[in-house]
């Protein structure tokens, strides 16, 4: 009798465990691939012809492609802040990129997108480019534990490039430590670092040493290294729901693809780097299929901001590649090219395959979207600017999810707001890079038209015309390329948009009705 009882009990326990595991498995895994500097026109499914992106295009065929998706900022660090926190970077007074001596810009008491997922039983990881700082003091001591960082923001694991692939300290960080650092070769301030892009010197960084830890001497393998780390983490954590924030260093300059991609595109090194990116995405897709995870994983691909017109970008442009398609402007700008970005989402059986959406959404909305996905109720102050975009991923909302959207360029004076077909920019020019000569790494804003030859009624010979309106208003429905500033034509709309922007900035939570 005892043996029978024990056997029966074992069967019941086994069935309960099986049911529990099955219940766990019904929770969808989530991977967000946040690409660096991928423009609206940089992939085939968004119109690129000088590069080939079969894997990303296949992702679009199997999922939904969005045509009016934006980054909350046209700049890397503020954009990432928005994605992780669900709040506009202007609330943090964060406008430009941060560098090697800036502490963590996110308050560890804030709920993050990783926190939402972790509280819902998910394993969480951030792999790739971080670019949001470490620690609490300036300057950062790179030779000690880098705390707080991603792990203090609810990521269980971090591996990646702490700043970006063009700036010091050119090392990998795993969890709290620089990988491969030795006691006799520490990272030091006041030492000029050399890079592939600027081999003679790089005084802006003035951070060197730590040569044993540098990836700089093998920088063509950074994309492969990060990809391998992401795949290893997926395989290790596949038995429970997981959330992976995978931020690639592709396609940020310098353009250093692995050798097999060199010379493979029709857009020079810029395009070759896109080809490597497409391979990376394909490797992630293949892993999900091989591991039996494909049908229960929401896979998202997007970008931190629009494409950049740096030296490599100018070369690609001259070869016929258009980073941001027909959009006006580039990375850092308040114009559409600065922040309208690719967004593709695949979730078999939930997101209609081969579909498109023109819903106005933003990367700041990913936090509320994840919260809805896992049935987490955001509390006041959590993701205060984040809207639930899940209905637009899986269906067609009966009314717009967003009434308006605030966009931050590099210059605070040019902060912008979108409502319906209208885009209002608070000042003249793009609010982006200030280079004025073709060939300059920092060529941007009005001066970019010297190479693009794009038309805008406020600009002539690469400069804002004398007497141009003091701010800008565009009808994106009839003028998606922002060729005509109608600021003087619609004073009532201008007044409404200016007030809407003021209210949105002053309100602590823009998701509340104004």
UniProtKB/TrEMBL annotation:
Signal sequence, renumbered to the chain: 1-23
Signal listed as a keyword: yes
InterPro entries: Alkaline_phosphatase_core_sf (IPR017850), GAG_Ulvan_Degrading_Sulfatases (IPR052701), Sulfatase_CS (IPR024607), Sulfatase_N (IPR000917)
Pfam families, per database record: Sulfatase
GO molecular-function term, one example from the UniProt record: hydrolase activity
Annotated ranges, domain Sulfatase N-terminal: 28-374
This protein's UniProt keywords: Hydrolase, Signal
Domain of life: Bacteria
PANTHER family on file: SULFATASE, SULFATASE N-TERMINAL DOMAIN-CONTAINING PROTEIN
Family label: Belongs to the sulfatase family.
Protein's name in the database: Arylsulfatase
Organism classification: Bacteria, Pseudomonadati, Bacteroidota, Sphingobacteriia, Sphingobacteriales
């Amino acid at each position: 009798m005892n043996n029978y009882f024990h056997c029966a009990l074992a069967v019941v326990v086994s069935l309960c465990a099986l049911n529990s595991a099955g219940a766990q498995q019904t929770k969808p895994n989530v991977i967000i691939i946040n690409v660096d500097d991928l423009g609206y026109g940089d992939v085939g499914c968004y119109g690129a012809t000088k590069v080939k992106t079969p894997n990303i295009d296949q992702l679009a065929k199997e999922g939904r492609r969005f045509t009016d998706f934006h980054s909350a900022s046209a700049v890397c660090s503020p954009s990432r802040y928005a994605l992780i926190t669900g709040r506009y970077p202007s609330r943090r007074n964060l406008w430009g990129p941060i560098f090697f001596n800036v502490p963590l810009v996110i308050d560890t008491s804030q709920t993050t997108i990783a926190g939402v997922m972790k509280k819902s039983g998910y394993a969480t990881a951030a792999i790739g480019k971080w670019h949001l700082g470490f620690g609490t003091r300036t300057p950062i001591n790179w030779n000690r534990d880098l705390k707080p960082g991603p792990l203090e923001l609810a990521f269980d694991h971090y591996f990646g490039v702490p700043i970006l692939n063009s700036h010091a300290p050119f090392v990998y960080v795993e969890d709290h430590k620089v990988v491969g650092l030795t006691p006799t070769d520490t990272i030091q301030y006041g030492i000029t670092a050399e890079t592939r892009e600027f081999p003679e010197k790089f005084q802006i960084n003035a951070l060197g040493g730590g040569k044993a830890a540098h990836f700089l001497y093998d920088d063509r393998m950074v994309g492969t290294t990060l990809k391998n780390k992401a795949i290893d983490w997926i395989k290790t954590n596949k038995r429970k729901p997981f959330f992976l924030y995978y931020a690639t260093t592709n396609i940020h300059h310098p353009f250093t693809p692995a050798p097999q991609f060199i010379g493979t595109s029709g857009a020079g090194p810029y395009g070759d780097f896109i080809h490597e990116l497409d391979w990376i995405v394909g490797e992630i897709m293949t892993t999900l299929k091989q591991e039996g995870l494909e049908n229960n994983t929401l896979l998202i691909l997007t970008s931190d901001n629009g494409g950049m017109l740096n030296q490599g970008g100018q070369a690609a442009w001259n070869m016929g590649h258009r980073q941001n398609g027909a959009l006006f402007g580039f990375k850092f700008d308040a114009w559409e090219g600065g922040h309208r970005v690719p967004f593709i989402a695949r979730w078999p059986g939930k997101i209609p395959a081969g579909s498109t959406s023109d819903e106005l959404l933003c990367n700041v909305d990913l936090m509320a979207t994840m919260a809805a996905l896992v049935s987490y109720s955001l509390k006041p102050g959590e993701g205060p600017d984040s809207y639930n975009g899940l209905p637009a991923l899986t269906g067609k909302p009966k009314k717009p999810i967003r009434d308006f959207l605030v966009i931050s360029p590099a210059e605070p004076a040019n902060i912008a707001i979108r409502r319906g077909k209208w885009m209002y920019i608070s000042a003249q020019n793009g609010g982006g890079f200030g280079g004025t000569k073709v060939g300059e790494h920092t060529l941007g804003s009005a001066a970019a038209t010297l190479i693009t030859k794009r038309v805008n009624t406020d600009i002539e010979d690469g400069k804002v015309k004398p007497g141009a309106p003091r701010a800008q208003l565009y009808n994106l429905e009839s003028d998606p390329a922002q060729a005509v500033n109608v600021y003087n034509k619609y004073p009532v709309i201008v007044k409404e948009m200016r007030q809407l922007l003021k209210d949105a900035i002053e309100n602590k939570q823009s998701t509340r009705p104004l």
